[in-house]
């Protein structure tokens, strides 16, 4: 099963390396990973998407919790939650393609954020499914470059991952 | 230089480091100097509270610190330079990590501004050590040194213990840059709060399950020794009359000569221990981690047993074997609470069932009971050597082992009645551990009998330490079960490779006795079983120098029982010709 795990950790040099090292060392899979500062400058928040059997996921969360710099973590997929990812795609857009790409972009509520006579750069946000669907829809066009942020997530309702 | 009490003393980074160690109560540090730590070594020279032991190879320093920790329960401290000093310490750090041993390793580092430039003797010790430490930290500001030291000890010794590395760039220790020194009393960390007790509801469930068992066994590991819970374990087992097996790391936690002790379990466990485990209906695992050398094939492990698992590390629970009742907590308070709850419980163990269980266990004991071939009185049997050692030292020695057949014979035939006396590298299986380990113990327990049980292969991995023994007057006894082979390798080659001895024979061995004598020690060679006991007694009576006891043992001996690969715990080879 796919899991989204969000981790609050001390904003210290080397903390990220420990998380990444843990996954490499124990052979756990990481589909995406994103890390950024939070409102509290002493903390950073890391969100990772991983796949595995329940037993493996249990080990992953236990080992993450064991890392000295990890303050708190939550497996967002255990409850109702919102996930978002931002993707930027640069596509070749000439001739008839130009209109076609723009239409697809509109359908997905994407935004064209940079234009040249031969290219569009489109920004799309959504959950992983939507972002993937957009990529599929563009399959007729020539993709020049794709940049994805990886998933960030937050629990619905009152629950919050904070100190 | 007196100062008013209110004003903190001004010290350099190097001085603060050593003073912090003193204030932490550290008596010995083990190490080796080099460029990046010279300021620190100068600070050592200027005081006499913290004593430094100069080894001959940094690996030995780590094993000394590690073994001191295993014997005393307190973190050992290592100091090495950057680059090769740090990399030489790696094997010892990994050894401690695998066995959850508290240790603080201080490594020098190149100047901060040179980090990342491939400077002379620069290695990324933070990166190198990361997978084999409980935690590591790098000093960025000399003011942080005292709190970093406090934190390192706290992390190393609390929760599930382990090694902590502090990497210190040289410019953090400049002799002329002074900072106010204050050693913190305690440390509080929001991100690290080890559990202090177990969940009472879980403990109740466990007690109910245990009291209703008809064929129970207690399987206890190194966690009971680290958690200082030997007394509680013994009380629990004896109160309920339940059989006890110990892992390789757990030997001594339960008295080895007691009737209820069925021996070590696992790959080279006793027949009765493995049979009792396999046929149990309830396994109470305490501070043990269901290592693959214990369980054999996990799919066939204890088919009828409910598993209760007590461990301080949640990640050890349900890792390889699913626990029916997990209890996360330090073993001592958990066992205490179990004892209280048993006292109050209305349930009583089914004594008839338990009697039947003991009858069965005694039958298994009869069947094997640790026997070995004794038909040829000319051949020196390694098992007999260990039994004789146990007799001569009255089972009270600190036995520090290397890795190989001799290690297994020592584990099987030396009967440990006390915790912290059996000191061996279980998780990593580090050849070369034995001698420095024995030195670390002897230094802190000068009047104790400390024996390094080794093989002619293992001893050569750190034999240079004979020199350190001489310098510090450490009278360890080296009992070398010299079979002329990398015996454990040879055994596997006998069993799995039709006796093709690919590189398991060591030609050109030195005359170990003469070698020891060249360092100013004593050497005793034992070639015939008749002279064994007398010469061992003679060796143990020496108190002022190392005695290298070179015992020529039967090279063809194998360690049995041995679990059949991929089988259940009960599938064992019992001798060269029998299997279960
Ligand atoms: C550093 C290291 N290298 C290799 C091994 C693999 N190994 C395990 S036991 C053994 C043989 C040990 O020989 P010896 O010390 O003579 O002991 P014996 O088995 O003969 O009693 C070897 C090579 C190891 N455990 N550690
Ligand atoms: Mg040998």
Q: How does this structure look, described?
A:
The complex is a heterodimer of chains A (163) and B (580). Chain A has 163 residues and is α+β, with helices and mostly antiparallel strands. The longest helix of chain A is centred in the middle third of the chain and has 13 residues, at 54-66. Chain A contains 4 helices and 9 strands. Chain A folds into 2 domains: 2-79, 2-Layer Sandwich (Alpha-Beta Plaits); 82-152, Alpha-Beta Plaits, CATH 3.30.70. Chain A starts with a strand and ends in an 8-residue tail after the last strand. Chain A is elongated, with a radius of gyration of 18 Å. By secondary structure, chain B is of the alpha/beta class. Chain B folds into 3 domains: 9-181, Rossmann fold (3-Layer(aba) Sandwich), CATH 3.40.50.970; 200-367, Rossmann fold; 382-559, Rossmann fold, CATH 3.40.50. Chain B is built from 20 helices and 22 strands. Chain B has a 6-stranded parallel sheet with strand order 3-2-4-5-7-6, sandwiched between helices. Chain B has a 6-stranded parallel sheet with strand order 11-10-9-12-13-14, with helices on both faces. Chain B has a 6-stranded parallel sheet with strand order 16-15-17-18-20-19, with helices on both faces. In chain B, strand 6, helix 6 and strand 7 form a beta-alpha-beta unit. Chain A binds chain B through residues 9-10, 13-14, 17-18, 21, 25, 55, 58-59, 62-63, 65-66, 68-71, 163, and chain B through 126-127, 130-131, 134-136, 138, 155, 189-192, 313-315, 318-319.
CATH topology heading of the largest domain in chain B:
Rossmann fold
**How far from one another are the termini of chain B?**
75 Å
Ligand names: thiamine diphosphate, magnesium ion
Query: Which chains have the largest interface?
Result: A-B, 20 and 18 residues
Strand order of the largest sheet of chain B: 3-2-4-5-7-6
Pathway (chain A): Amino-acid biosynthesis; L-valine biosynthesis; L-valine from pyruvate: step 1/4; Amino-acid biosynthesis; L-isoleucine biosynthesis; L-isoleucine from 2-oxobutanoate: step 1/4
GO molecular function (chain A): acetolactate synthase activity; acetolactate synthase regulator activity
Subunit structure (chain A): Dimer of large and small chains.
EC number (chain A): 2.2.1.6
């Amino acid at each position: 099963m796919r899991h989204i795990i969000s981790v609050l950790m001390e904003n210290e040099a080397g903390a990220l390396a420990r998380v990444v090292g843990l996954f490499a060392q124990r052979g756990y899979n990481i589909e995406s990973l994103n890390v950024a500062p939070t409102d509290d400058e002493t903390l950073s928040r890391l969100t990772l998407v991983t796949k595995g059997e329940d037993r493996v996921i249990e080990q992953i969360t236990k080992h993450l919790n064991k890392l000295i710099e990890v303050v708190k973590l939550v497996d967002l997929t255990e409850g109702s939650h919102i996930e978002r990812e931002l993707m930027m795609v640069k596509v070749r857009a000439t001739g008839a393609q130009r209109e076609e790409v723009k239409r697809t972009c509109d359908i997905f509520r994407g935004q064209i954020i940079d234009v040249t006579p031969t290219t569009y750069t489109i920004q799309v946000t959504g959950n992983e499914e939507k972002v993937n669907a957009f990529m599929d829809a563009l399959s007729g066009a020539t993709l020049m470059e794709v940049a994805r942020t990886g998933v960030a997530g937050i629990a619905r309702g009152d629950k919050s991952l904070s100190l | 230089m007196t100062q008013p009490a209110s004003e903190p003393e001004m010290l350099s980074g190097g001085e603060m480091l050593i003073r912090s160690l003193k204030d932490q109560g550290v008596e010995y540090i083990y190490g080796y100097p080099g460029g990046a730590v010279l300021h620190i070594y100068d600070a050592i020279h200027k005081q006499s509270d913290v004593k430094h032991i100069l080894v001959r190879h940094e690996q030995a320093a780590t094993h000394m610190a590690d073994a001191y920790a295993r014997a005393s329960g307190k973190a050992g401290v290592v100091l090495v330079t950057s680059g090769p000093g740090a990399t030489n310490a790696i094997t010892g750090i990994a050894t401690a990590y695998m066995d959850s041993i508290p240790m603080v390793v201080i490594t020098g580092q190149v100047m901060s501004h040179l980090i990342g430039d491939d400077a002379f003797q620069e290695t990324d010790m933070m990166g190198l050590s990361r997978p084999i430490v409980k935690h590591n930290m790098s000093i960025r500001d000399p003011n942080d040194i005292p709190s970093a030291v406090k934190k390192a000890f706290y992390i190393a010794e609390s929760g599930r213990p382990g090694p902590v590395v502090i990497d210190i760039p040289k410019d953090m220790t400049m002799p002329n840059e002074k900072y106010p020194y204050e050693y913190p009393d305690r440390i509080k960390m929001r991100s690290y709060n080890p559990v202090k007790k177990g969940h009472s509801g879980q403990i109740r469930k466990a007690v109910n399950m245990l009291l209703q068992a008809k064929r129970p066994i207690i399987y206890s590991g190194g966690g009971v020794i680290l958690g200082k819970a030997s007394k509680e374990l013994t009380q629990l087992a004896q109160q309920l009359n339940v059989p006890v097996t110990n892992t390789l790391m757990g030997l001594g936690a339960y008295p080895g000569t007691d009737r209820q002790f069925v021996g070590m379990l696992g790959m080279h466990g006793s027949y009765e221990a493995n049979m009792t485990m396999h046929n149990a209906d309830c396994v109470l695992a305490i501070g043990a981690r269901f290592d693959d050398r214990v369980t054999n094939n996990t799919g066939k492990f204890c088919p009828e047993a409910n598993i209760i698992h007590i461990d301080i590390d949640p990640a050890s629970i349900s890792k390889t074997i699913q626990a029916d009742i997990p209890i996360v907590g330090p073993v001592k308070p958990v066992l205490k609470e179990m004892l209280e709850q048993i006292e109050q419980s209305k349930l009583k163990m089914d004594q008839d069932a338990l009697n039947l269980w003991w009858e069965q266990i005694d039958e298994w004991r009869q069947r094997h009971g640790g026997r070995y071939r004794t038909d040829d009185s000319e051949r020196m049997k390694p098992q007999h050597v260990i039994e004789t050692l146990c007799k001569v030292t009255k089972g009270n020695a600190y036995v520090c082992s290397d890795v190989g057949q001799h290690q297994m014979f020592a584990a099987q035939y030396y009967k440990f009645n006390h915790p912290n006396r059996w000191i061996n590298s279980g998780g990593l299986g580090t050849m070369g551990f034995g001698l420095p380990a024995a030195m670390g113990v002897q230094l802190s327990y000068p009047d104790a009998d400390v024996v390094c049980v080794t093989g002619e292969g293992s001893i050569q991995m750190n034999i240079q330490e004979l020199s350190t023994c001489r310098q510090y007057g450490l009278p360890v006894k080296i009992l070398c079960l010299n079979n002329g082979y990398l015996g454990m390798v040879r055994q596997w080659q006998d069993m799995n490779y039709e006796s093709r001895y690919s590189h398991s024979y060591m030609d050109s061995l030195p005359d170990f006795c003469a070698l020891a004598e060249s360092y100013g020690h004593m050497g005793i060679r034992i070639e015939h079983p008749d002279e064994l006991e007398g010469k061992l007694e003679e060796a143990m009576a020496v108190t002022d120098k190392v005695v290298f006891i070179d015992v020529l043992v039967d090279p063809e001996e194998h360690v049995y029982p041995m679990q059949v690969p991929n089988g259940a715990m009960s599938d064992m080879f019992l001798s060269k010709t029998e299997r279960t």
